[in-house]
TrEMBL record:
GO terms for molecular function: nicotinamide phosphoribosyltransferase activity; nicotinate phosphoribosyltransferase activity. Residues 188-346 form the Nicotinate/nicotinamide phosphoribosyltransferase domain. This is Nicotinate phosphoribosyltransferase. Residues 373-480 form the Nicotinate phosphoribosyltransferase C-terminal domain. Transiently phosphorylated on a His residue during the reaction cycle. Phosphorylation strongly increases the affinity for substrates and increases the rate of nicotinate D-ribonucleotide production. Dephosphorylation regenerates the low-affinity form of the enzyme, leading to product release. Residues 14-144 form the Nicotinate phosphoribosyltransferase N-terminal domain. GO terms for biological process: NAD+ biosynthetic process via the salvage pathway. It comes from Algoriphagus chordae. Belongs to the NAPRTase family. Pathway: Cofactor biosynthesis; NAD(+) biosynthesis; nicotinate D-ribonucleotide from nicotinate: step 1/1. Catalyzes the first step in the biosynthesis of NAD from nicotinic acid, the ATP-dependent synthesis of beta-nicotinate D-ribonucleotide from nicotinate and 5-phospho-D-ribose 1-phosphate. NCBIfam families: NAPRTase_put (TIGR01513), PRK09243.1-2 (NF006695), PRK12484.1 (NF009131).
Length: 498
């Protein structure tokens, strides 16, 4: 495998779970491939025990769907697959069907950078059952990871209280695309720049960095190393001061800073990468101020995350720039967002939508049936609640009642006259045609900040946040309850017969 040349071979159609393909074959074989269905992508719990999630990855989803096509190489590979009996697994008629398959779904999705809450659809796919099914794994792969990292980045940036956060994660990221997607999502979530040069090139993210201990160690003395760096980058020098002795390193940085100044240049600052970051940043601040460098930045790095940054802020550390790698790009304390993709309705032969329910021992896991969408209510510009409702439902214009899907005793009456509303699911594809203008990455990043500004600060608290109200419109709640009870009766009946 030559990763530089052979990795994707121009097609991602096989980047899926095997069972999607066996189901696709069986849908085709049983004549159900073209039956219309609706699937929803949602998650059940915020990551990091937080109070909000940032939706990210839609740009990748759009690209994936636009290019949703099995290549000749993909089909040739599928043709070699054998069943337990040693016979070919997929008939040639099916491979021919895949070859001619054209993406034709409707996709509605929340825009990238939107603040989202549990159980509300982030992406809704409506179209031929076989296509909806085949999209499950790639859509989850894309949205789960980028939303997770964008959320982590937003938390880290909230902790940094507006100070720049530089993303340094590539070396510890989850592989090659993990690293690229993480840099993209980290920037969306609020980071100022990435150290990942390829992400800079591919996504138009600002790239920045300092230098490593190896630079210092390659010289006889730290002083020589600083001087040589200043010579190479007289306008962009940030000196890493902790290779040998941090206080001495700060003294050397000041000396080189003075030399730069005598040439009409200014050092940008220093970086501290070990030891007590509160203590050394305060020592550095005092020394830099005394030496006449009050504007020199103090960059800190070393296994930082939102909790350590919050602690350092509490200790009044004099850090103005935060370099964050491993714990950001790996979402260290929660390495996956548990997004799921569930069938919620299927069209019968008469063209009626039949809502579908999946029972679970855990009521938390019972899905929301029907062709539904989600509306956000705002009061004085602040988001106050999200309502999931059946798209075909006539809503009571006076007052809509929303009911928590996990606890029906939690209810809230929305008086639309007093609120502004926004339907969060936006049309992205109609019958396979892209009808949405993709925003730039900078617009998505700005959107995250606007969105975070639209929710109450109690939901943004990093620890024990206040729960944002989301609920099912009462008719949808009713439908769900009826379907659950009906499905349970069927189950009981079956049990009784056994
Ligand atoms: N004042 C502080 N308050 C809270 N956490 C801190 C403080 N100073 C440093 N830390 C964090 O404590 C951890 C220290 O880790 P570690 O013991 O590996 O660092 P170190 O030994 O100083 O440096 P290294 O081993 O990387 O050279 C890091 O996660 C760092 O961000
Ligand atoms: O700590 P992170 O948040 O991942 O940030 C990136 C780290 O990468 C570099 O360290 P390096 O790879 O040289 O290893 P180190 O941890 O031993 O310093 C840098 O000096 C940071 O400490
Ligand atoms: O530019 C830096 O300082 C940097 C880049 C990657 C990892 N650690 C630090």
């Amino acid at each position: 495998m030559k990763i530089t040349k052979d990795l994707y071979q121009g097609s991602l159609a096989l980047l899926t779970d095997f069972y999607q393909l066996t189901m696709a074959y069986a849908y085709w074989k049983s004549g159900k491939a073209e039956q219309e269905a609706v699937f929803n992508l949602f998650f059940r719990k915020h990551p990091f025990q937080g109070g909000f999630t940032i939706a990210a990855g839609l740009d990748y989803v759009v690209d994936y769907c636009k290019n949703f096509k099995f290549s000749q190489e993909d089909l040739s590979y599928l043709a070699t697959m054998k069943g337990k009996d040693g016979k070919v697994l997929f008939e040639t008629g099916f491979l021919e069907y895949l070859k001619n398959m054209k993406f034709s779904c409707d996709i509605d999705a929340v825009e990238e950078g939107t603040v989202v809450f549990p159980n509300t659809p982030l992406v809704r796919v409506k179209g031929p059952l076989i296509q909806c099914q085949l999209l499950e794994t790639p859509l989850l792969n894309i949205i789960n990871f980028q939303s997770l990292i964008a959320t982590k980045a937003a938390r880290i940036n909230l902790a940094a209280q507006g100070e720049p956060v530089l993303e340094f994660g590539l070396r510890r990221a989850q592989g090659i695309d993990g690293g690229l997607a993480a840099s993209r999502a980290a920037y969306i979530g609020g980071c100022t720049s990435t150290s990942n040069v390829m992400a800079g090139k591919l996504f138009g993210i600002p790239v920045s960095g300092t230098h490593a201990h190896s630079w210092i160690m390659s010289f006889e003395t730290e002083m020589e190393a600083f001087e040589a760096y200043a010579d190479a980058f007289p306008d962009q020098s940030i000196f890493l001061v902790d290779t040998y002795d941090t206080v001495n390193g700060i003294k050397n940085a000041i000396k080189v800073g003075n030399a730069l100044r005598s040439n009409g240049k200014e050092m940008v600052g220093i970086r501290i990468d070990s030891g007590d970051l509160a203590y050394f940043s305060n020592v550095a601040r005092e020394m830099l101020d005394e030496a006449g460098f009050p504007d020199a930045k103090i960059v800190a790095s070393n296994d930082l995350d939102e909790n350590i940054i919050t602690s350092l802020k509490g200790q009044e550390a004099s850090i103005n720039v935060w370099g964050v790698g491993t714990k950001l790009v790996t979402a260290f304390d929660q390495p996956a967002l548990g997004g799921v993709y569930k069938l919620s309705a299927i069209r019968d032969e008469e063209g009626r939508w039949i809502p579908k329910i999946k029972l679970s021992q855990q009521s938390l896991k019972i899905n929301i049936p029907g062709v539904h969408t989600v509306k956000r209510f705002f009061s004085k510009g602040k988001a106050v609640a999200d309502m999931i409702y059946l798209e075909s439902q006539e809503l009571n214009p006076q007052a809509a009642l929303i009911i928590d899907p996990n606890d029906p005793t939690r209810r809230k009456r929305m008086m639309p006259a007093f609120y502004q509303e926004e339907i969060l699911l936006k049309p992205i594809f109609a019958k396979g045609k892209l009808i949405y203008t993709l925003p730039t990455i900078a617009q998505i990043r700005d959107r995250v900040q606007d969105q975070l500004g639209s929710i109450d600060k109690t939901h943004k608290r990093l620890v024990n946040p206040h729960l944002y109200p989301i609920g099912l419109e009462e008719n949808l709640h009713q439908l769900r309850m009826e379907l659950v009870l009906k499905a349970k009766q069927v189950d009981n009946g079956n049990d009784a017969e056994q």
